[in-house]
Design goal:
The chain is built from 10 helices and no strands. The protein has 218 residues and is mainly alpha-helical.
Amino acid sequence: MSWGGAFKCTRSEQSEKKQQMSQNENSTTMQSAGNHRSNTCCFCWCCCCSYPWREDDDRFRRTSGDIKLETLQKCEASAKPTAEEVHSWAQSFDKLMKTPAGRNVFREFLRTEYSEENMLFWLSCEDLKNEANKSVIEDKARMIYEDYISILSPKEVSLDSRVREVINKKMAEPTTHTFEDAQLQIYTLMHRDSYPRFLNSSVYKSLLQRSSSTSSES
């Protein structure tokens, strides 16, 4: 065999080997992709779907969010207010806030102004005051802080820097009185800012009209 023939044969063998290696690589890639795809969702194929811990983490966050949302949407249990009660709410803010029915109606109004978090914070503080278990107090205080005090929360209430500083110090060892200053500030804010508008709102006026009609009929 001539050197030319040997060279041609070698080139031919190398070409065949490269082609075979390329086919093997493609086959391996497709097999790997198939295995990878089996762990993904049915709508997409990306790295974020291939890790089970991400799915568990997302599921946990969704569950936590649902629980918090359910808690937020739950209103206080209250009987239907009497005509006398509804009229008394216009006499003072204290009378409105002392009845569950009044708080629920006022909360409905605050929702229309996108300031429902003020009432939710106040109610959470009231709930904290009634707690006796130390570990539960710490847990509830932490949740209140994360939901209404943290600047990262979408439900952050408006507090001045002095009150925030006091809360930050007290959070080292939270008690039932940790948020007292903040609760008073938000109560005052609702009284001065939201309460006058509530009395002139359609929410209160329609309730006042219905209660007056019911009272006259009876």
